[in-house]
Amino acid sequence: MKSLNDLKIGEVGKVIKNEASDNIRRRLLDIGLVKNSLVTPVLISPGGDMVAYQIKGAIIAIRKEDTQNIIVEEA
User: Fold this and answer.
1) Contact 26, 55 (CB under 8 A)
2) Domains of the chain by start residue, with CATH
3) Helices (DSSP H) in 10-70: which residue ranges?
4) In the prediction, which pLDDT does 4 show?
5) What is the pLDDT of residue 40?
6) Can you give the pTM of this predicted structure?
7) What is the spatial distance between Cα 64 and Cα 5, in angstroms, rounded to a whole number?
8) How many CB atoms neighbour CB 14 within 10 A?
9) At CA 50, angle to CA 12 and CA 44, rounded to 5?
């Protein structure tokens, strides 16, 4: 198991646990980062602080600091 930040571009991860703080946790749950959902990093911003993820058919950009507490396993 590793954090969502550790996934490489194109690597598929399955969400195991969301350990983010309350405000961020709720937002991440709202966009589909729930237990057992599949997520794939598809693009990194030029500055490297944002990553675009494919989550349930949508592409969503999330700051790296907000995804460091999302625990995933390789799917």
Assistant:
1) no
2) 2-74 (2.30.30.90)
3) 22-30, 64-67
4) 95
5) 97
6) 0.91
7) 6
8) 14
9) 55
What pLDDT does 52 receive? Answer: 97
- Radius of gyration, alpha carbons of the chain: 11
Task: Please state whether 2 falls in left (phi above 0), alpha (psi between -120 and 50) or beta.
Answer: beta
19/67 Cα distance (integer angstroms): 9
d(CA 6, CA 31): 20
Task: Determine how many CB atoms are found less than 10 A away from the CB of residue 1.
Answer: 11
State how far Cα 19 lies from the chain centre.
Answer: 12
Q: Mapping DSSP to helix (H, G, I), strand (E, B) and coil, where does residue 14 land?
A: strand
CA atoms within 13 A on the CB side of 42: 12
Q: Is 49 left (phi over 0), alpha (psi -120 to 50) or beta?
A: alpha
